[in-house]
Design a protein that fits this description.
About 20% of the residues lie in helices and about 25% in strands. The protein is of the alpha+beta class and about 475 residues long. Strands 1, 2, 3, 4, 11, 12 and 13 form a seven-stranded mixed beta sheet that branches. Helix 2 crosses helix 3 and helix 2 crosses helix 8. It is elongated and about 120 Å long.
C-alpha cells in the first residue's frame, strides 16, 4: 500500500508540474440578438447570458449584435455574479449609428491580459481585432509571454435571391479581413469568429443559389494567415449535419422575443476559424481537437425549437446535452447558439540560457567553471561528466561560478549550466564547455639498486622519470 501511495503522489506531482506550464482557455462566440432591447436600459436577458457563459466556463467571450456601451456594461455586471469577479471587457465599444450593432470581447482576467483593440474598416459593419496575452506567473524570469489575436466579425446577412449584393458585400468584408491579417506577423496566433451568415461552403459553383465566395476567400491558401474551418464538411438544412447548426433556437410554434428568427434549427451561420499556427500549435497556442461545438445543439432539434417539449430526446428532458435551465436560457437569450472551442496556451520557455561558460585553473582533480550571470536567475544547475560517458553529475550554484572538485586526473571533461527562476522553472542548458584535468604527482616512490616503483596514477598514459646523484645539479 505504501508503495502505491508513493507512486500516486509522484504521479500527482508530475502532472501538476506539467499543467503548470500551460492554461486551457475556453473560447465562446455568440450573437446576442439586439442586446439590449432598449439601448440605454438594462435587459434581463443578461442573466441568461451569464448563466450560459458561467456554465460553459468561458475564458474568452466574443459577441455580435451589441447595441450600446451601456449594454456591454450590463453584460459585464451579470457575468461577475455568483462569486465570479474576474471578467473584464475590452475598453472600447464601436457601433455603426445609434442603436446599431457592434462587437465586444470579455475575458477571464485571472488567466489573460488585454493588449490592444483595433477596428478593421470594411463595408456594412467594421470588424474588431482584440489582442490578449497569457498571464504568466513567471513573466519576470521568462521575459516573454504568449499572445492570441481574436477577430470578431459580423458579415452581411441575406441570400443571393433576396439581394445579389449580399454575397458581394460578404466577399468584400472577407477580402478586407484577409488583407488586414496579411499585415500581422507570420507567427501570430489568429482566431476569427462571429456571425458569418454563410449559407454554404460552396465557393466554386456560382450557379448554386447558396454560392459563398467569401467562404473560399477565408480558406485561400495564398494568404499568410489562411483560415481553417475545423469541421469543413457540411451543408445547410440537412439532418446529416444538424449538430453543426447555430440558428435558430426558435420555431414558428416557439417564436421567442426580440425579433429573432423563427425558422427552426437548419443553418450554420456562426463559426470559429483559426489559422494554421493555432491548428498545428506552432507558436504556443494549440486548438484542442474535438472541442469545437455549437453549444446546446444536441442533434435532436433539426428544424425545431430547443425548448419544444414534443421533441423526443434520449435523456427525456428538453435537451440531451444541457440541463433544462440552460436550454431555456439559450432560447430566451438569442436565436443563435453559441460556438465554443478550447485552446491550450503554453507559457513561454525560460529563454535566459546562460552564455560564456568557460573552465579555468584546472588541476589534476579540480577546475573552476565561470559563466555570464543571468539577471533573472536565482540559482543555476551545473552538470558535468567525463567525455564519452552518459551519466551527468549535477550540482547547484547560487552564483555564476562553481569550483569542481574530486575530478579524475588526466581526463577530458564536458560541462553545461542552466539558469533557475524563483518559481523553479529552468532554462535550457548552455552549450558545452570542454576542459581537461592535469596529471597527478605519483606517491609511494621506492628504489632498489636498479628498479624504481611508485603508486599508479589513475588516468596516466605514461610517466617521465628523472634521477641524479645527490648533490649534483
Amino acid at each position: 500500500m505504501k508503495k502505491r501511495l508513493n507512486l500516486l503522489f509522484l504521479c500527482i506531482m508530475l502532472c501538476s508540474a506539467h499543467l503548470s506550464a500551460q492554461q486551457t482557455i475556453t473560447v465562446m462566440s455568440y450573437n446576442v440578438l439586439n442586446y439590449p432591447a432598449n439601448v440605454t436600459t438594462y435587459d434581463s436577458r443578461g442573466v441568461d447570458f451569464a448563466t450560459i457563459s458561467q456554465y460553459i466556463g468561458a475564458d474568452i467571450i466574443a459577441i455580435n449584435e451589441l447595441r450600446s456601451d451601456d449594454g456591454a456594461n450590463f453584460l459585464l455586471q451579470d457575468l461577475n455574479t455568483n462569486g465570479i469577479t474576474y471578467y473584464q471587457r475590452a475598453p472600447n465599444y464601436y457601433n455603426f449609428g445609434f442603436g446599431a450593432l457592434g462587437n465586444m470581447l470579455y475575458y477571464n482576467s485571472d488567466k489573460l491580459g488585454f493588449v490592444s483593440q483595433t477596428q478593421i474598416s470594411t463595408v456594412t459593419r467594421e470588424l474588431s481585432h482584440y489582442k490578449l496575452y497569457l498571464l504568466d506567473p513567471d513573466l519576470p524570469c521568462h521575459q516573454d509571454t504568449t499572445y492570441v489575436d481574436i477577430i470578431v466579425v459580423h458579415l452581411k446577412a441575406g441570400t443571393i435571391s433576396s439581394d445579389p449584393n449580399n454575397i458581394t458585400k460578404r466577399l468584400q468584408q472577407s477580402q478586407d479581413l484577409m488583407a488586414y491579417l496579411d499585415g500581422l506577423p507570420a507567427t501570430s496566433n489568429v482566431m476569427v469568429m462571429g456571425d458569418f451568415n454563410f449559407y454554404s461552403n460552396d465557393y466554386t459553383n456560382s450557379a448554386n443559389p447558396d454560392y459563398e465566395p467569401a467562404y473560399g476567400e477565408l480558406i485561400d491558401a495564398s494568404y499568410v494567415h489562411t483560415l481553417v474551418d475545423v469541421v469543413p464538411v457540411w451543408i445547410r438544412n440537412s439532418s446529416t449535419y444538424d449538430h453543426l447548426y447555430t440558428q435558430s433556437t426558435r420555431s414558428f410554434n416557439y417564436p421567442g422575443g426580440n425579433g429573432g428568427s423563427t425558422g427552426g434549427l437548419d443553418d450554420r451561420f456562426d463559426f470559429q476559424f483559426m489559422n494554421n499556427n493555432v491548428v498545428n500549435g506552432t507558436n504556443r497556442v494549440t486548438y484542442l481537437a474535438g472541442t469545437y461545438k455549437a453549444f446546446g445543439n444536441d442533434g435532436y432539434h433539426f428544424n425545431d425549437a430547443i425548448i419544444d417539449p414534443s421533441v423526443s430526446v434520449p435523456s427525456g428532458t428538453l435537451n440531451n446535452e444541457v440541463p433544462d435551465n440552460i436550454a431555456q436560457a439559450l432560447f430566451d437569450m438569442s436565436d443563435h447558439f453559441p460556438v465554443i472551442s478550447q485552446i491550450r496556451m503554453d507559457y513561454a520557455p525560460n529563454t535566459t540560457t546562460p552564455t560564456g561558460l568557460t573552465a579555468s585553473a584546472p588541476t589534476a582533480t579540480s577546475s573552476t567553471l565561470n559563466w555570464t550571470a543571468v539577471t533573472t536567475a536565482t540559482s543555476y544547475n551545473v552538470q558535468y561528466r567525463p567525455v564519452g560517458t552518459t551519466t551527468w553529475t549535477t550540482v547547484s550554484s547560487t552564483t555564476n561560478t562553481y569550483a569542481l572538485t574530486g575530478l579524475m586526473a588526466c581526463t577530458d571533461y564536458e560541462a553545461q549550466v542552466q539558469s533557475v527562476c524563483s518559481s523553479g522553472s529552468t532554462s535550457t542548458f548552455s552549450t558545452i564547455a570542454n576542459f581537461s584535468t592535469g596529471a597527478s604527482m605519483p606517491t609511494g616512490l621506492t628504489a632498489t639498486t636498479s628498479t624504481v616503483n611508485w603508486t599508479t596514477v589513475t588516468g596516466a598514459a605514461s610517466y617521465n622519470v628523472q634521477y641524479r646523484p645527490v648533490g649534483t645539479t
